[in-house]
Design brief:
Subcellular location: Cytoplasm; Nucleus
Mean pLDDT: 92
Pfam family, one: DDE_Tnp_4
Shape: globular
InterPro entries: HARBI1-like, HARBI1_animal, HARBI1_dom
Number of helices: 6
Largest sheet: 5 strands, mixed
Function: Transposase-derived protein that may have nuclease activity. Does not have transposase activity.
GO cellular component, one term: cytoplasm
Length: about 180
């Protein structure tokens, strides 16, 4: 805040108020832009992911990213992530166009991606709604637990088809990495 204030020539508290107002305005609009896809949209997403990476049936790719924050005054150690800085671990799912379809942004930096997924409403929704592969798959990295709706790569592939799976998985899942930037 201090650097921004110095650069623009305004007080740090003014920068803080502006950031707070903009953040609240964006959050109030999030439901208009971040929404789980309809059945028709899922079909389009599956085709798009297949065209992009060769992995069939994918409706989203999931990952977490750490958003750096100032050290909080309460429960400070839980916000220190594995890289040693204070953060919020933000979990997101994106579609084949890099549009967010789900975001969870409330966990301290020390919390593992797989725990955030396990505790999320989207996990509960997918657990109940996912009856078969045709319902769609989410691709995650090896930090996630493989589930009926969440595919992760083979850790140590031993067969050629494991390698092909991992190659298609990586080509398809990189969409979330690009979305985060």
């Amino acid at each position: 805040m201090q650097v921004i204030g110095d650069t623009v020539g305004i007080d740090k508290s003014t920068v803080s108020r502006c950031v707070n107002k903009v953040s609240k305005a964006l959050a109030s609009k999030s439901d208009q832009y971040i929404k789980w896809p309809s059945e028709q949209r899922k079909r389009d997403i599956k085709q798009g992911f297949y065209d992009n990476g060769g992995f069939p049936g994918v409706i989203g790719c999931i990952d977490g990213t750490h958003v750096r924050i100032a050290a909080p005054s309460s429960d400070e150690p839980s916000f220190v992530n594995r890289k040693g800085f204070h953060s919020i671990n933000v979990q997101a799912i994106c579609d084949n166009e890099g549009k967010f379809t789900n975001i969870v942004a409330r966990w301290p930096g020390s919390v593992h991606d797989s725990h955030i997924m396990r505790c999320s409403q989207i996990s509960e929704h997918l657990e109940q709604a996912h009856k078969c592969v045709e319902d769609g798959l989410i691709l995650g990295d090896s930090g996630y637990a493989c589930r009926s709706f969440l595919m992760t790569p083979y850790i140590r592939p031993t067969e050629p088809y494991h390698e092909r799976f991992n190659t298609a998985h990586t080509r398809t899942r990189c969409c979330i990495e690009r979305t985060f930037g």
